[in-house]
């Protein structure tokens, strides 16, 4: 399989930072979504 992928016409080099950045972005979107779903922020209930 490695030989087949090496001879493939279209190749893209992906670094680790691409996955780290997209993961951080996904977690940020999830946290923002959850915070908007919460009717009252936690700091108001203290």
Q: What does it look like?
A:
The protein is mainly alpha-helical and 46 residues long. It has two helices and no strands. The chain is rod-shaped. The protein starts with a helix and ends in a 9-residue tail after the last helix.
Strand content: under 5%
Care to count the β-strands?
0
- The chain-level structural class is mainly alpha
Rg, nearest Å:
20 Å
Q: Could you state the order of secondary-structure elements as H and E?
A: HH
> What coarse outline follows from CA principal-axis ratios?
rod-shaped
Portion of residues in helices?
A: 55-70%
Largest sheet: none
Low-confidence stretches: none
- The DSSP helix count reads 2
Mean of all residue-level pLDDT scores: 83
The end-to-end span amounts to 58 Å
Q: What is this structure, in a nutshell?
A:
With 46 residues, this protein is an all-alpha fold. The protein contains two helices and no strands.
What labels would you give this structure?
single chain, 46 residues, mainly alpha, rod-shaped
Set out the fold topology.
Elements: H1 2-6, H2 16-37
């Amino acid at each position: 399989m490695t030989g087949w992928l090496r001879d493939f016409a279209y190749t893209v080099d992906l670094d680790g930072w691409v996955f780290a950045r997209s993961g951080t972005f996904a977690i940020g979107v999830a946290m923002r979504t959850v915070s908007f779903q919460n009717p009252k922020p936690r700091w108001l209930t203290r």
